[in-house]
Each structure stands twice: as structure tokens, then as C-alpha cells.
Design brief:
The protein has 253 residues and is an alpha/beta fold. It has a single domain, classed as NAD(P)-binding Rossmann-like Domain (Rossmann fold, 3-Layer(aba) Sandwich). Helix content is 46%, strand content 15%. The protein has a seven-stranded parallel beta sheet, with helices on both faces. The radius of gyration is 17 Å and the shape is globular. It binds NADP nicotinamide-adenine-dinucleotide phosphate. The site of NADP nicotinamide-adenine-dinucleotide phosphate has 27 residues, from helix 1, strand 2 and helix 6. The site of NADP nicotinamide-adenine-dinucleotide phosphate (NAP) has 27 residues, from helix 1, strand 2 and helix 6.
Length: 253
Amino acid sequence: MDLGLRGKKAIVTGATKGIGRAIVELLAAEGADVGFCARSEEEVEETAKSLQARGVNVVGGPVNVRDGEAYKAWLEKTAAELGGCDIFVPNVSAGGGMDSEKNWWKNFEIDVLHTVRGCEALMEHLKKSGSGSIVMISSTNAIETFAAPMAYNAMKAALITYGKQLSQFVGRHNVRVNTVCPGPIYFEGGAWEMIKNTQQKFYDATLRAMPNGRFGTPEEVARVVAFLASPAASLVTGANVVADNGFTKGVRF
Ligand SMILES: NC(=O)c1ccc[n+]([C@@H]2O[C@H](COP(=O)([O-])OP(=O)(O)OC[C@H]3O[C@@H](n4cnc5c(N)ncnc54)[C@H](OP(=O)(O)O)[C@@H]3O)[C@@H](O)[C@H]2O)c1
């Protein structure tokens, strides 16, 4: 199946590692031009080189998405350099933590506000596209109880409601909005490797909850995101797609 991604212009936040990195590698492999960010300048440069080798236009920049003004300026500059924006994937998260108010502010500013700011800053470009698509990255922690009452879980849930309502609001401009909920995703240098090394019992219990006994990979999430982002998913908007390898147990109709 041709996803129709060739020549599309995609902007992805937090794309030097893990799920974000797998998303930009796949979009570039499908022929999309890619703009992306992360905080480490060195890792941005390394990622840009890898993507350029796929023969597409690449605009990488170091920016902390928590800094609203710098982030919005970076989005505008990136869209201008790419010549527009058809696809936006706000992927950065502040991650989990139980440090009370500190985590609530961090997860609000990063998980929620960076997504909202990005959608607002890029909306005119997405409307002009004619096939604009936003894919927000939530988590299975938003749809089932997990570990502890963390800000991360609640803020990831906020994204699902925001995404659904935004999809109704911008649908008349042919902009689709969907969310993806990955389950636990293992990769070298990622959160689950750290948990494996520090909380073996919790790691083992999580693994046992997977019907086929393995974690998901960033590449498996990236394939779901690429489909939703692409014109091939033209009928799919306002959806929350769970990509969790059977980790969640609730029955949803
Ligand atoms: N991994 C999982 O099991 C899992 C499960 C469900 C949902 N998710 C969601 O999937 C998304 C990606 O997760 P991941 O595990 O792949 O993340 P990750 O390994 O922590 O990678 C995050 C990426 O974002 C960049 N980044 C982090 N903070 C940033 C900031 N403030 N400003 C700009 N860039 C920033 C990082 O580079 P720098 O450090 O250089 O900035 C890196 O490129 C997140 O939304 C996460 O909540 C993950």
C-alpha cells in the first residue's frame, strides 16, 4: 500500500531517540521531508545526518519545547524552511514521577502545552496543506490505571480529549487529528531499560502482562503513527489508537 507520504512535510518533536526517532526515520524512508527537534545539539546533528542519507529535506534544531517562545519560533522557522507543514507529531513528554506539584507543572507545560502550542502555531500551514494531519502521542497510562496517581497519566488523558475536540473543530479544513496510546516500549537508553536495571520486579510484572511475553518497539509505534499521519488514513480522525501489544485489559466499545 502506498501511504502517499512522498513529498509531504512533517514536523516531529523529540526525535533523536526512541519513538520519535523511529517516526522520523520511517517518514523519511517513505519520502517525507522532515523537521525535528531535541535539546542535545550533538544528537540533533547525528540524527539529521542519518535522515539526510535517505535523500529527503531535513531541518533539525536544538530547542527545549518547555520554553514556549523559543519553541514557537523554532516551529515557524522549521515550517518556513520546509516550505509548509502537512504533518505534526508532538511527541515530547516530561515522563513520569511522583514529585507532587513539580511533576504536575512539568507534565502540564511539556506534555499538554507543547502539544497545544504546536497545533496552534502550525494550524495555518496544516489548513493550507489540504491533507493536514496531527498525531498526538498519549499513553496506555491515560486509559487504564498504572503504577501510581501520576501527573503523567492525567496529562496524557487530557491529550485524548483535546485531540478529539480539535478534530471536530478543524475537520472542515481537511485537517485530521488523532492520538496514539503506546503501551510499554523497550529500547536501549529508554525508560524501560532503566526500570529493568533498577526495579526488576516491576519490570517482570509488566512483561507478564504482555500476552506474547515481549515489549513493543519504537518501530512498531512508528508504523501506526505513519499510517495515521498519511493520506491513506483519510477517513480516520478523532480516533485514539491503542498500540500496546495487548497490555491493557479493559473492553472498550
Ligand atoms: N517509552 C514508552 O514505553 C512509552 C510508552 C507510552 C507512551 N510513550 C510516549 O512516547 C513519547 C516518546 O517516548 P520515548 O520513550 O521514545 O522518549 P525518550 O526516549 O525520552 O525520547 C525523548 C526525545 O525527546 C527529546 N526531548 C526530551 N525532552 C525534551 C524537551 N523538553 N524539549 C525538546 N526535546 C526533548 C529527547 O532528546 P533530548 O534529551 O536531547 O532533549 C529525545 O529525542 C512520549 O510522549 C512518551 O510519553 C512512551
